[in-house]
Amino acid sequence: MKKNKGAKEFLLDHILYVALILMIVVIAIISPSFISTRVLSDVLIQSAPKTLLAMGMLVVIISGGMDMTVGRLAGLGAVVAGTFAQTATYYLKFWPNLPEMPLIVPILITIALGAISGAVTGFVISKLKVPAFLAGLGLQLILYGANLLYLKKAPNNSQPLAGFKESFTNFGTGSIGGISYTVIVAIAVMVGVYILLNKTTLGKNIYATGGNREAAKVAGINTFKVDMFIYILSGCLAAFAGLMMAARTGSATAAYAEGYEMDAIASCIIGGASFAGGIGNVPGTFLGVIIFSVINYGLTFVGLSSYWQFIVKGLIIVVAVALDMRKYSQKK
After folding, report:
1. CA quadruple 165, 168, 170, 174: dihedral, nearest 10
2. pTM for the whole structure
């Protein structure tokens, strides 16, 4: 009886991974060429920006929060980075009188933008006591509106951005030793977040804040500083993820990364994080990102309508949250 119960618990805890394996098997049966090095490379490259979003979201969720702004912030990051990465000769140059900027300029501007947005989000949630979900919904609308207004400036007049410098697009499409630059950045970010959460006092404070905020305060942890740090980190990673998307595609619009905040949240929950806070890990979250990338890439690969992606992803999110709530209730 105990063995059956143990097997049942194991299956429930890993049902989404089982579903991923089954999905890969089915896609491979329909189209055997899906199992190839090229497909693996494409999946990893497409996963890179989403990995940054998920890593930022993971830290926020572990602390007991939620950052609903990351999708729109990534879109704003893509647009702002693009406006400072255009060639001097492009006929629709966003800043006509601005000389060509070295790659480091759009990178630093984008990161600074993410830090400012994250600081505002953290202040609104932690100091003004606005519920994280509602604060995120309001702030994401502000970010989207600001992005649309920014793009509307003449001579661009709401046109998609293009005409990027080769050094900028090479960052998104180039590689070293056969490994994409964006994948290398994603790996570096994962290693950094892993060290932060598992090897530093700040990481322990983040887990403690999410596990029991009041107890953390009693223990002398400055939860406001923790909140500000996690949202600033999430903002920086989200904005930089947008830059990576613009560099890879060679264009940028305000619609970039729309809805990616839900993918980031679901990736964390699928990977073992809990809305209750205090729980989560980097490897599991990365596997969650891969699950959604396989769904997006795999269904397109076999020729199914992209509309099915929304249905499948929606089902996975519902199941993931249901399992999370089940585990939390059992823990209580």
Report:
1. 180
2. 0.91
Instruction: Answer whether residue 332 shows pLDDT above 60.
Output: no
Q: Could you write out the three-class secondary structure of the chain?
A: CHHHHHHHHHHHHCHHHHHHHHHHHHHHHHCHHHCCHHHHHHHHHHHHHHHHHHHHHHHHHHCCCCCCCHHHHHHHHHHHHHHCCECCCCCCCCCCCCCCCCCHHHHHHHHHHHHHHHHHHHHHHHCCCCCHHHHHHHHHHHHHHHHHHHHCCCCCCCCCECCECHHHHHHHHCEECCEEHHHHHHHHHHHHHHHHHHHCHHHHHHHHHHHCHHHHHHCCCCHHHHHHHHHHHHHHHHHHHHHHHHHHHCCECCCCCCCHHHHHHHHHHHCCCCCCCCCCCHHHHHHHHHHHHHHHHHHHHCCCCCHHHHHHHHHHHHHHHHHHHHHHHHHC
Quick one: angle between helices 132-151 and 70-83, nearest 10? Answer: 20
Q: Using alpha carbons, list the distances in angstroms from residue 226 to 84, 121, 126, 281, 297.
A: 32, 13, 10, 18, 36
Give residue-wise pLDDT tens across range 101-127. Answer: 999 999 999 999 999 999 999 999 999
Any idea which residue has 């000769």 for tokens? 89
pLDDT surpasses 70 at 1: no
273: nearest Cα among 65, 72, 90, 134? 65
Place of tokens 């998920």: 54
Closest CA to 117 of 148, 80, 164: 80
Work out the mean pLDDT of the chain and round it to a whole number.
Answer: 90
pLDDT of 31 > 90? The answer is no
The predicted-structure confidence for 163-186, as pLDDT tens digits, reads as follows 999 999 999 999 999 899 999 999
Selection from 240, 192, 182, 185 nearest residue 46 by Cα:
182
Q: How many CA atoms lie within 13 A of 140 on its CB side?
A: 23
298 burial level (CB within 10 Å; 0-12, 13-18, 19+)? buried
